[in-house]
């Protein structure tokens, strides 16, 4: 298209140096050819580049508008205006208004929207102001994730997590000894911090034994008694167990039949006891099993827990030291004969 426009301009410049008679003769021949073409093609097909050439010719030489016969003059003027709109749109296509927020700020705004279902744009803008970001609430609303539902509330995981500090769970775990005797390990876990509040081993489980373990676990705790105790439908939780649990002001929550996921945290703890401890040790008797499990529980309460965002179940929150500990000052303590190790810095 550019070449055709250039050819048109060169031919127009060349016609300046020609005689008037030659130009009149050429125009007469061209007009006659157009008349012949109009007889065979009533409505010729005009391409976009033809429109550009005709519009530029009218722009440079306004007198040639009378010589155009295949289209109406108003059509050529409309083409010229549309061409000018394209040029002006390209020149004025710069963004107007305030500059957009940077990528880090946009990511932070979307993070606030996702993590806080009860917050609005004013609250998020105020929280960003506390962090040093001066953002308008309208800007916060602009970068709200589109898939978040309106008037959304807390999720089920949040609702359950807010009630875990009042809930315990219990379950029995079987252990096979060296002489193929079956022992029963009774575990009670606090669901808030995944803390094992009681663990005991017996060869003859009963409702009296389970109830006594629960009473001892409650007596060892300084805070208030749990409101709920999650258990399965095993017949071992008989009348005596239910009576002792109720006497402590605790209500039993019974899981549905064949639904171990309803007591998922306690079931997962049983798997951890097997994978990290019992699968690697041959237990001799109930005394040996009780000693091994209590040593592992001490280690379990201090190790990082994935369910707690790599924090230990009890004790202070794990924080990195101000300075890196040199490798020579890192000491280890073996657990269960070297099956696991605890690491800490050497005391000066």
Overview of this protein structure:
The protein has 348 residues and is of the alpha/beta class. The protein folds into three domains: 2-89, no CATH class; 103-153; 161-308, Ribonuclease H-like superfamily/Ribonuclease H (Nucleotidyltransferase, domain 5, 2-Layer Sandwich), CATH 3.30.420. The chain has twelve helices and seven strands. It has helices at 2-14, 20-40, 48-60, 73-91, 103-115, 121-130, 137-142, 156-161, 207-220, 239-247, 264-276, 286-300, and strands spanning 167-176, 182-190, 195-202, 228-231, 251-254, 330-335, 340-345. It has a five-stranded mixed β-sheet with strand order 3-2-1-4-5, with helices on both faces. A two-stranded antiparallel ribbon has the order 6-7. β6 (330-335) and β7 (340-345) form a beta hairpin. The two termini are 84 Å apart. The mean pLDDT is 81.
